[in-house]
């Protein structure tokens, strides 16, 4: 059996099978062009939908490495199916290593394990639907502590969403809501947050969602998406330094990538997609690679019908020269 457990904290309860549905699953695997002997990094294990299909394509000489900062995601992956020890008894199976770490630390973590090169890497920048049930305040539809941290031990993280809304200056709150959430009413929302916290600290996700709803025009609050959607997105990005992690993680994967190797990135909003596109263009212009997708691959109408959260997804792929 070639499964290797890595450092991770155990969940206090038994993991349950994930209901997460992977987006652009077949398109991503086809674009990566995985061979049996490849070393493949899944930088965002999440619900492990992509991971299970990747491992099926690997043979005895293959090596799958999965990252996730959320230890619950590691536990879920190890508890069922092809990624579990029981599911890897076949002597022809590839090696698997699951790492409880941020993909921003990809280079360091792989070097510690003497993995000197990789053939393929996948970054699915959507967050797993399992996190809606994490109890960490990701959902504006639930009354949970306002954390929004990917790591389970939120007390070890310097910044949480609660920190931002209760301690940051009004202008800084407005800037992140507008810059990372593209929220047109960012100034009104920031002002409402500061006025509310003058009476009492903002403690929960539902409390914040109600503040936001009251701050925006009534017609906006009744719109197609919940009025707190963009603000929660911006806070999540700020808390987890998502754009810094994306840049560092992709550049680290690129550094380790063999000639002919590929990196695929799935994004879920325009800010992420622009950042990935600009990075890929930069790598291409420096002569180090070639974009396989000049225009992003998007989900089919059928996939969007079955899984509405896929509607904003975009897949970009680059190959190293």
Structure description:
Helix content is 40%, strand content 14%. It is an alpha/beta fold and 321 residues long. It has 2 domains: 3-130 and 242-320, Vaccinia Virus protein VP39 (Rossmann fold), CATH 3.40.50.150; 151-239, DNA polymerase, domain 1. It has an 8-stranded mixed beta sheet, with helices on both faces. Helix 6 packs antiparallel against helix 7 (186-197), helix 6 packs across helix 10 and helix 7 crosses helix 8. It starts with a strand and ends with a strand. 44% of the residues are buried.
List keywords for this structure.
321 residues, alpha/beta, Rossmann fold, DNA polymerase, domain 1, eight-stranded mixed sheet, 13 helices, 8 strands, globular
Short recap of the structure:
This protein is of the alpha/beta class and 321 residues long.
- The CATH homologous superfamily of the largest domain corresponds to Vaccinia Virus protein VP39
Strand content: 5-15%
Number of strands: 8
Widest sheet, order of strands: 1-4-3-2-5-6-8-7
Strand count, sense and closure of the main sheet? Answer: 8 strands, mixed
Helix content: 25-40%
Distance between the termini: 35 Å
Q: What is the correct CATH architecture of the largest domain?
A: 3-Layer(aba) Sandwich
Protein structure class? alpha/beta
Low-confidence segments:
1-18
Cα gyration radius (Å): 20 Å
Q: CATH topology of the largest domain, anyone?
A: Rossmann fold
User: Which CATH class of the largest domain is shown?
Assistant: Alpha Beta
Question: Could you report the average pLDDT, rounded to the nearest whole number?
Answer: 88
**Overall tally of domains:** 2
What is the approximate shape?
Answer: globular
Query: Please, how many helices?
Result: 13
Topology as a string of helices (H) and strands (E): EHEHEHEHEHHHHHHHEHEHE
């Amino acid at each position: 059996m070639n499964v290797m457990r890595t450092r991770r904290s155990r969940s206090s309860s038994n993991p349950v099978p994930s209901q997460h549905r992977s987006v652009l699953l077949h398109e991503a695997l086809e674009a990566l062009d995985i061979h049996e002997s490849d070393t493949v990094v899944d930088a965002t294990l999440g619900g492990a939908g992509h991971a299970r299909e990747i491992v099926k394509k690997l043979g005895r000489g293959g090596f799958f490495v999965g990252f996730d900062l959320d230890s619950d995601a590691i536990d879920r992956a190890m508890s069922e199916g092809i990624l579990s020890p029981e599911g890897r008894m076949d002597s022809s199976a590839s090696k698997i290593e699951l790492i409880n770490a941020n993909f921003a630390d990809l280079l360091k973590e792989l070097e510690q394990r003497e993995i000197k090169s990789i053939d393929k890497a996948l970054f699915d920048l959507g967050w797993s639907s399992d996190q809606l049930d994490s109890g960490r305040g990701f959902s504006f539809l639930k009354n949970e502590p306002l954390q929004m941290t990917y790591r389970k031990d939120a007390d070890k993280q310097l910044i949480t969403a609660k920190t931002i809304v209760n301690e940051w200056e009004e202008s800084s709150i407005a800037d992140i809501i507008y810059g990372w959430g593209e929220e047109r009413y960012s100034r009104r929302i920031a002002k409402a947050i500061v006025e509310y916290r003058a009476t009492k600290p903002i403690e929960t996700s539902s409390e914040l969602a109600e503040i936001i709803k009251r701050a925006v025009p009534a017609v906006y609050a009744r719109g197609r998406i919940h009025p707190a959607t963009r603000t929660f997105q911006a806070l999540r990005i700020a808390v987890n330094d998502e754009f810094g992690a994306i840049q560092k993680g992709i550049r680290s994967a690129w550094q380790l990538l063999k000639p002919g190797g590929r990196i695929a990135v799935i994004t879920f909003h325009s800010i992420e997609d622009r950042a990935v596109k600009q990075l890929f263009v930069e790598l291409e212009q420096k002569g180090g690679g070639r974009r396989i997708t000049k225009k992003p691959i998007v989900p089919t109408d059928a996939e969007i019908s079955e899984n509405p959260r896929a509607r904003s997804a975009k897949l970009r792929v680059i190959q190293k020269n």
